[in-house]
Design goal:
- The chain is an all-alpha fold.
- It is 80% helix and 0% strand.
- The protein contains 17 helices and no strands.
Amino acid sequence: MCTPVYLSTIGRRRTRTGDGQAGRRRWTAIGANVFALGTVSLVTDISSEMVTAILPVYLVVGLQFSPAAYGVIDGAYTGATVLLRLVGGYLADRVRRRKAVAGLGYGLSAIAKLGLLAAGGSVTAIGLVIAADRAGKGLRTAPRDALITLSAPPDQLGRAFGVHRTMDSVGAFLGPLVALAVLALAGQQYDAVFVTSFCVAAFAVVILALFVRDQTGPATAREPSQGAVSARQAAGLLRIPGVRRLLAAACLLGLATVGDGFVYLLLQRREDLSLGWFPLLAVGTSLAYLLLAAPLGVLADRVGRLPVTLCGYGALILVYLALLGPVGGPVLVIVVLGLYGLFYAATDGILMALAAPLLPERLRTTGLALVQTGQAVAYLGSSVLFGVAWQLWGTGAAILLAVLAGGIAITATAVLLSGQERRQSGTKEATS
């Protein structure tokens, strides 16, 4: 039976600053596989953000979707493929081919970009194409994150995810700029964006195939072979108290997140920004994200991953409050985008780094997929409810509900995971 590293190890500082040589060794310890995976994510994010940057304004302004209809589409963008997240995670653990499963997901997302050419203005067709694209993301995310956890030492996971997410956010930063350039060159034809996005995504698949190794990590060499992972063993993850608590926390945090599209639409309407500037809002968020992801990953390894994650959701609440506050103009735009980038930098990869030590290596991908699935289901509900609240009661009431949900989620998560940390710490000390 595999014994997970207890949550008490998450908040402890394991390394000293040391001299410059020690610092370089820590960065080298992350491994070439993390940088290769980061390159794949960078190129893929250029492709996906080309589409994501123009999608909200294309649907709401161009195709006249209602806020509620957009809420359904936005929720489907992240939450409708939750089962495939679990399927991808379990399949990768069972066949021990995480790279292959991730490659299948990247390939499916690439092909889906071409589907937008045929979707036209049909809500159903757009929904199906987006579902296919997110199915690819659902298949690839957990295997990719599991490869990261198996390619770096346990005490450097925050740093490893910070490096990966920094490279990922470089792609998110460049994607909208590439979309604007393509639109300018193609006479504002959206089809040109979709074709270019497909070509970029296909290139990412080639990089994955050539440079990413199906890393199994040092833990595998120490553990005897236990055969293929069964569905009963995967379900047994829920019998681990720390996993149950982390899953509950992930669901609560997902309910506090309303989605990028809504934040940018609210900001655009509040400041009456020209539609030509809309894609650049995502660029601002990505710039803050790429500047902060690696430093916050290092900070999480030093002071604890839970405090950094909770502070990130605190930044999200400040985003909501800023959209309601009296301050406007360029100051509001800079504050909102900066805080939104801080939110992503403090939560995206760090939550996975927090989860990884709780999970047995042979079920690592399934466990990460379980956490991501819970969060995605909650996000789906949050996006739909926020869109309905906006349409029925207006933006002010919808934002206040998001603030309330965020406050409850942060408080409950602190109680859930801090209590688990204390109990696990006490258990470890008693048995040492």
